[in-house]
Amino acid sequence: MKTRLPDTCGARIVLQEKSGNIKKIGEIETRHIIIIISKNGKGNLRQKMDSVINERNIVKHNEFETFNEDCIVWMKNNKEKQFDLCVFSPPFASVYAYSNNPGDMGNSKDCDDEFLMHHQFFVNALFPVIKEGRNVCVHIQNPARSIINHGYIGIWDMRGEIIRQFESAGFYYYGEATIEKNPQAQSIRTKTQCLSFSQFVKDSLRSRPALADYLLIFKKGIKSEAPCTFIKQKNEHGALERKDVTNDDWISWANPIWQTEENESIYLPYQTCWHTINETNTLNYRAARNKDDERHLCPLQLDLIERCVRLWSNEGETVFSPFMGVGSEGYIALKWDRKFVGCELKDEYYNCSNDNLKMAIQEKENDKCQTSLFQ
């Protein structure tokens, strides 16, 4: 049911015709040229490219670095960087339109293929900056389809498309977890008729389950130079375990379905769910909102980020978020004694993220002072 991108091939032809006017055409420039042409028409190629590829703000701190620019441009220009863990939630296709920048992946309203074209360039640029044997954690939810916008009611399998693109770039699809969602809460928040009681009573053929979130785990290569481990201790049973993530933690976190805190009171035999992924435990994003924003910002839950950081990185290592938003991944990384590098395209979110990262460092220092005070 996907609509094909009608002018991509035409854009490539225009690129070939005009390439003589540009001294150096690389993959990054090619991506932006195609996007610009498809969104704005042919026009002046050099001028439009310059409007996208430009110098942005940079903040450098002892514990973090942030860059106010397109992450694909930044990664292509910083291939020497090597990160120990990457955690992010991509701008979903036509679901969260963050800005009017042509490089914004969320500005892919014309069709699914436009988003996938953006995303393939992104995955290809991401592969070189991840260390061998290390993980990339991607949080997604399959987008719903509607009669008004897509001509049918259903769900787009974005999860499957993203998995195939990561594999094509050289990553191994290593694992995943499903984050359970409260259907009543989702119905109220999204106004989805498919979940409403009225629709169920009237005609349940139009009803469907709530949309779950997924954490997709990809690995570059096979073996890491440094294992992820910590100081060992013996538990009450005499078994050796880590002090940072205990064996009991791992019993819970190794389950394939992570349950939200709202449903924690439900008992399931052998508990096949991750607990305490609190949907409302996010950083404050309202300060980053702009009156012209077309969609709302949906920050990644801090509990989910914390598990990724604690499981798949060591203290002192560097966590990377290519879509930093308000800095949720960096906030958790810094709180757990990791370093952080992030990219964010939109100015308002970028400024808010730096405030949140500084807040994480201050909170960590306050915690240390309180600990030493009572020792």
Notable traits:
375 residues; alpha/beta; Rossmann fold; two-stranded antiparallel sheet; 14 strands; disordered N terminus
Can you describe this structure?
- The chain has 375 residues and is an alpha/beta fold.
- It has 2 domains: 1-54, no CATH class; 57-373, Rossmann fold, CATH 3.40.50.
- 37% of the residues lie in helices and 18% in strands.
- Strands 1-2-14-13-3-4-8-7-11-12 form a 10-stranded mixed sheet.
- The relative contact order is 0.14.
- Residues 1-29, 32-55 and 262-275 have low confidence and may be disordered.
Question: What can be said about the biggest beta sheet?
Answer: 10 strands, mixed
- State the low-pLDDT regions, or none: 1-29, 32-55, 262-275
**Which CATH class of the largest domain?**
Alpha Beta
Given helix and strand content, the structural type is: alpha/beta
* First and last CA, distance: 63 Å
Per DSSP, what share of the residues sits in E-state strands of 2 or more residues?
15-25%
What letter string, H or E per element, gives the SSE order?
HHHEEHEHEEHEHEHHEEEHEEHEHEH
Total DSSP helices? 13
Q: Could you give a short description of this structure?
A:
With 375 residues, the protein is α/β, with parallel strands linked by helices. The chain is built from 13 helices and 14 strands. Helix 2 packs antiparallel against helix 5, helix 5 runs parallel beside helix 7 (158-169) and helix 12 (328-335) runs parallel beside helix 13.
